[in-house]
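Hey L., structure's done. Input below.
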Amino acid sequence: MGEFEELVLRAVPAIEALIPAEPAAELGRYEPRQWTDGRRHGTPAQRALDDFPGLTAERLLGALELGVARLTLTAPAEAVAGVRPLPDGSSFSILSFVGQSALKTPVTMAAAMYPGAIELITERVRTTAALLDLGDLTGDEAAVAAKHGAAHLALAVAVSAAVLTRLGTPASKDPLAIIGIAIGVTALLLPDIPKPPAYAQALLRKRRDEYMGSSWETSVPVSGHEFVCVEEPSRSSADFAATGLVAAVDTGFAVHTGIEEGRVPVSVRVVLEVPAEPDVAHWDEVAEVSFTAVDGDARLGHGGMPPWPGDFRVRVSARGRDGDDDEAYELLIWPAPHAEPLVRKKTDRIGHRLRGEPEPEREIAPEAALRWLPNLLGEAATVTVITGLDVDDVVDDFEDDSIAVEIDGGVVVVEDNNYVGSNREVLEHLSRKGKAASYFWNVNALTRLSFARGGVLISSEELWEETDFGGDPEVAAALDGLDFGDWRHRNAKGITAVVRFTGAVLPRDDLTAAIEDLY
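Output:
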């Protein structure tokens, strides 16, 4: 250790004692923004000062200003060799603006009068920082971060004061220049200086104490019929024989998908207590397994597991793996002791195949043939089918942007984000020579399914599991077998009831072309 290092390190404890814990902790945690603009001026430390949060810099200035003014540190002459003032007769200009930090102009003056001085201070702090003794740190995350930030800022203040005093610049008598340079140098260097060993455990404790559970929606990549939630690439292969859906692997778990490659939507919820019994009605397969997190914080999409190690349980719900529905998954994760795998629902063919069980016969849902239509229309629309009339007979009852397509024996009218066809008077008028039925839905999950015949409205109700549409036999036949208690494909079910009641056959190609032209 040289004379200069001994000088500044002796000064560090007294300077560090002046620095408040809260802004010191902010400095200790500081991560800079990533700039790509090559036109920014000044030394790296000046740019780092510009980027550093202004309020935190002002708090540090207020705490240090009087103490720094009393410092009597002078670097040895050889420590500043190579730095020379501007030649006599030189001039420069400084641009300032209202509202800028009080630190900016003094730092700019020092950089202009002694080119290379700030770079020298930066390098001296960089090399001397390795000699700092932070002691055996204990305490919470804030305390360790504060010690890390305060010690390095104190070192930078000591180096800045000693170098500027030796150079004899006017800035050597200006605490704002010394402190501004020190903050900029610390903000520049500290993100690349490893935090104390105690910080990782302190941060883990903080994150665990603050963790309240999490939930998110994401889309995850699938490879080889699997997606995984792991801390690192697994060294073990997943065995799905126990559940047909999910299996534990090293540091996490894997889920078996229907598609071989691509992406699937996944809804994730992490809770800290044992969850209630699941509602499995809307899923094809539901299964649970235990897994062990080695470090925690495994990522899945933009969300992650709890940030601590230990045993966890995951309940996976899946639908659409057989290709007869939109494939989707739900994950529910919570801390729990290890337990045996549990299958809560098993209805898809893939799951039975993986478990070595005979594949079940899956009934085709009555609305399956019409799922394409609500998928084309989006969040709000009305589909109305009329018999006994042609296009010219019905267009005046609807808005100009509605789509009217002639079908065998009648007309189908599609309204985007409108609901004229669900109006009682309109339906009764449209059914004057036959039948009319409509189904409406919107973004707020409101619906209306209506039936009219011979100019009279028979029934018009919102779709619920227990909705009573009355005793009309043709309406009852239209609703037969449609499970409105299962919200999946509810809009396709409503359209199916409309088609059944009117006896219509919807021309997919013609409607698709007309709807795509509308959008």
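The longest strand covers residues 214-223. The two ends are 74 Å apart (CA to CA).

-- N.
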